[in-house]
Amino acid sequence: MRLVPCVATAGLVLLAGTAWAVVEEFDGGLWAHHESLSSQVLTDDLIITAESGGSMKGVRDPYALYPGFDPTRPATAVIIEPRNHAYLTLQAIGGTDLFQMAEPLLTVRGFRDGQEVVAQSMGPLWSDDTKSGVVAILSGFEKVERVEIRSDDSAPVSDVHFFLESVAYEVMDELPVTPPSPRPVTDQDSAGSVPTPFGNGGAVFGFWFFSVLLILRRYKRI
């Protein structure tokens, strides 16, 4: 796991104390090379799950998780959730599709309160030019509670199996509170308003009060 310097994120830390930018590279994994793991793996901040009891293994050199490696226990999706915090902002995913998935394109979806709030296509996670994996930059995955990575909708069956090598993210405990915008003043509001003896209405009130005094004085004289 590697901290990423980020001015904007540093501001969040100073203000809220609960958000930071991190790249999880799985270099803290205690697994042996190609060790079969459970369907769910915990890092410091994340819960990573191979959906439906799918297979998962840990590899080293480079460190990575390999969901869906066993075709008899396929992973229909890879799910990423915050472990000790309420919300997750996902910025990038690094992966290598070394064994060429039948459907090279993936769809990443973000959920909040059980509703899908963002989706983005990702892949292929392989570069023929460099013969290596790819880091996919994500946009709009801000303050979600759950992220699902599935095969593209065009695939007849979702079957996800690639080396998950890095996840760039932030975690936080609360959504920022946005103060309500002031209600705009309408013509109807202006027509129904009553002048006050303060500010611009002071002169109007003074004139009205002086007129009443004159009427009362004339009445007494009569």
TrEMBL record:
Transmembrane segments: 198-216
Record's protein name: PGF-CTERM sorting domain-containing protein
Highest taxon above the source species: Bacteria
Signal peptide: 1-21
Keyword line: Membrane, Signal, Transmembrane, Transmembrane helix
Native organism: Alcanivorax sediminis
Keyword Membrane (UniProt): yes
